[in-house]
């Protein structure tokens, strides 16, 4: 609740934690376990971590455009200096701490959802509203297979399936939907957590997709969002990749 956060002076606490190189417990879960809390590809970075804002700001140009912007602001660029040194130390401390938090996060998630039975139980409350798909910033299909006529079955079809199986769960194919999304988005998931926040039934989608994404992205040595020049693993085929599969 925004008014409540303002009353609690959350911004002041965030700045204080950033100054000391600590994570903020009120940050979204996705931010708390982010692998890259410091931006990799930006024109201009405003340094908060380890910086005493009463003394000034640390602005870091990450491109020619950023350098031009700093020149336009008539700011003096300083290489090194006490503020930059403190920031670097604080960033190193924060990254190391978040690495441990992220590892614990994955271990807990594996215990919660490891195995088909546990996964089916976690996805059990899904009502197939497709909110997670709709809000996902990197869902790239122009037309989702699950929005196609393939899944627009008539009532008689459901009754036929129920008669054969003895019963049919409604809505159908919830596990198929999430596993398909996981297959598509595993390489591209940036861990923003928008899917989990949009879920009306509180399914821990961030945990599941972050765990899957971390493993898949390391497998393909791919960092989503790092560069437009990097090919998406699902759109590129290389004969020499994954040769270890099937080997004894």
Overall structural domain count: 2
Spatial separation of the terminal alpha carbons: 55 Å
- Helical/strand content category: mainly alpha
Strand order of the largest sheet: 1-2
Number of helices: 11
Major sheet characteristics: 2 strands, antiparallel
What spatial form do the alpha-carbon principal axes imply? elongated
Number of strands: 2
> What is the CA-based Rg, rounded?
23 Å
Low-confidence stretches: none
Roughly what is the average pLDDT, rounded to an integer? 80
Order of helices and strands: HHHEEHHHHHHHH
How much strand? under 5%
Helical residues, percent: 40-55%
What do you see in this structure?
This protein has two domains: 2-113, no CATH class; 116-235, no CATH class. It contains eleven helices and two strands; from the N terminus they run αααββαααααααα. The chain has helices at residues 2-7, 10-19, 29-32, 64-72, 81-113, 116-122, 131-135, 155-165, 174-185, 194-198, 205-219; strands at residues 44-47, 58-61. The chain has a two-stranded antiparallel sheet. Helix 5 crosses helix 11 (205-219). The chain is elongated. The termini are far apart. The mean pLDDT is 80.
Key structural traits:
248 residues; 2 strands; 2 domains; two-stranded antiparallel sheet
Provide a compact summary of the structure:
The chain is mainly α.
């Amino acid at each position: 609740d925004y008014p409540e956060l303002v009353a609690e002076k959350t911004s002041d606490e965030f700045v204080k934690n950033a100054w000391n190189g600590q994570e903020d417990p009120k940050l979204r879960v996705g931010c708390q376990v982010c692998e890259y809390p410091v931006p990799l590809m930006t024109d201009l970075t405003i340094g908060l971590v380890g910086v005493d804002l009463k003394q000034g700001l640390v602005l870091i140009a990450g491109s020619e455009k950023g350098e031009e912007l700093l020149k336009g602001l008539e700011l003096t660029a300083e290489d090194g200096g006490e503020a930059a040194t403190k920031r670097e130390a604080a960033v190193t401390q924060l990254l190391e701490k978040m690495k441990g938090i992220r590892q614990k996060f994955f271990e807990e998630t594996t215990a919660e959802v490891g195995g088909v039975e546990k996964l089916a139980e976690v996805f059990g409350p899904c009502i197939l509203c497709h909110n997670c798909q709709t809000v996902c910033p990197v869902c790239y299909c122009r037309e989702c297979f699950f929005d196609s006529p393939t899944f627009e079955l008539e009532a008689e079809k459901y009754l036929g399936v129920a008669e054969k199986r003895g019963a049919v769960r409604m809505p159908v194919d919830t596990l198929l939907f999430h596993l398909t999304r996981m297959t598509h988005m595993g390489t591209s998931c940036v861990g923003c957590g928008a899917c989990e926040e949009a879920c009306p039934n509180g399914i821990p989608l961030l945990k599941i997709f972050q765990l899957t994404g971390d493993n898949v992205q390391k497998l393909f040595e791919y960092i989503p969002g790092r560069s437009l020049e990097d090919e998406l693993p699902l759109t590129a085929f290389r004969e020499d990749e994954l040769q270890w599969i099937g080997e004894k």
